[in-house]
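Hey all, quick one. A colleague (J.T.) asked me to put the NAP job into the tracker so the inputs and the structure tokens live in one place instead of scattered across chat threads. No bug as far as I know, just bookkeeping. Sequence used:
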Amino acid sequence: MSQNLDAIVIGAGVSGLYSLYKLRELGLSARVFEAGTGIGGTWYWNRYPGARFDSESYTYQYSFSDELLDEWQWSETFAAQPEIERYLHHVADKFDLKRDIELNARVSTVYYDEATKLWEIKTLNGETARARFILCATGLLSAHQFPDYEGVDLFAGMSLHSARWPKEEIDFKGKRVGIIGSGPTAVQIIQSIAPDCEQLTVFQRTANWCTPLRNRPIEAAEQVELREQAHDIFETCKKTFAGFIHDTDERNGEDVPKAERLARYQELYDIGGFALWLGNYNDSFTSRVVADEIAEFLADKIRQRVDDPAMAEKLIPKSHTFGTKRCPGEKNFYETFNRDNVDLVDLRETPISRVTENGIQVGDENHEFDIIIYATGFQSLTGELMRIDIRGEGGLSLQEHWSDGPKTNLGVQFSGFPNMFAIMGPHNPATFCNITRCVENNVDWILGCIRYMQENGYESIVTTPEAEDAWTERCYESVKGLLIEDMRDSWFFGSNNSENVRGRFLLFAGGVPLYREIFADVAAKGYEGFKLS
Ligand code: NAP
């Protein structure tokens, strides 16, 4: 059955749900097409043990409805995946969103018809739909990635990817488990399952600077306070560099006496979450002296917490300084390596040669497993969009348009693709961002733009190639001078992505407040840099 709509949304995660709500508010007919069998996006797919927020729960929730804020209370400062998934269902039910969401409907093609100026989509389950507007709510870390080791398909035991975790509970008791990866996802899994496994072997290529999460229950009195302060908290988040409650210390660390700096690191370490990363001195992202000192501060913590000095050294990052990658939030992660049933294979010493029928071969040694977990990350930002066959004006595919790296204007539009908007695509500030804060910002801007078009009788908007080139260049410029620029082996630079994307900075590092200002300025100038017709 083909459907004619005003707008099509691809994806029913945090941004897809909010987009549908806002499209309806404008009186537009819209449907969401979602690959999963349930809503939730990231929080639907990543249901692995230990999955939880790295943003404080009360900063991550939607801000747009007071009723919703009245009704929902988070049980922990960093809620776990089941609670987050329940929250998103609560939102979808409360606003009756599900009647316009098609599940199990992976969008495979998105073609622009120049004659009718409509977009047509096809899904793998045979649905088709047409609409004037397309909102890609496909997420920034959705296209999960398996390593390309020989034999990945040969393993006869259970293979699991963190981002395709089954709904059924996995029983690790008595099982020999191997996990590849040591990013934020792997850290959450390792610390959660280690006590259950008979043997857990961690295959680590790059150690990460983890900071304590310090999750705790939110008591009843604090719930009341948080509700009262909700809008103040959202306002604070609008003003901080990353949309979190942690704000940078205005002072440069280099101007502060060393003893004071060290005391400050300890204070931030004790607060937990991203405090040490995002609440640190103004120059912590630019000064190697400060970043290295924080790294050394954390290295000492690792040495104190890990009994075996050789193991501690393996867990201390050597390839990058603090703050240049998003830091995993941990609880007892380092102590996990004091357990007799946990081991670590340093892939920098001996790389994986292949996956075998019964395990993982490193050098000449075959490690036998019942279960292999891949916590190997994503083709970030461009990955999910590139997996869809998207064709704009003149039949130009997005892959062709991005053959020399992604190009966007403000991270929301691509030239030659009229009325198509990306919500969390490349070139937005998602690196550091508290996702829902950025999602609301971006969706509000996009819907503001559509409202402007309605009010002024425009049918089409598309970025000019010049504005697209300028924004793309500005994104590359935005990372210059930051220590992050030197750490290219991360999803910020598309380390898992295709060759034409890899090595390019995929985000805007000018901070959330500046991004908001630019958005407002462009809109105030009648969508400068975009062609309306
Ligand atoms: P990631 O940070 O990209 O980490 C992937 C891990 O897999 C890295 O340790 C990587 O090693 C390793 N890896 C990839 N390919 C490999 C190979 N061929 N052989 C060996 N190791 C390989 O991915 P992620 O941990 O899924 O996290 C991605 C992002 O998701 C995070 O930065 C964060 O923003 C978000 N996240 C958030 C939460 C939360 O708390 N809300 C939880 C999880 C994730 P190298 O480093 O050497 O490449």
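Adding what we noticed when we looked at it: The CA atoms of residues 427 and 507 lie 4 Å apart. The chain is about 35% helix and 15% strand.
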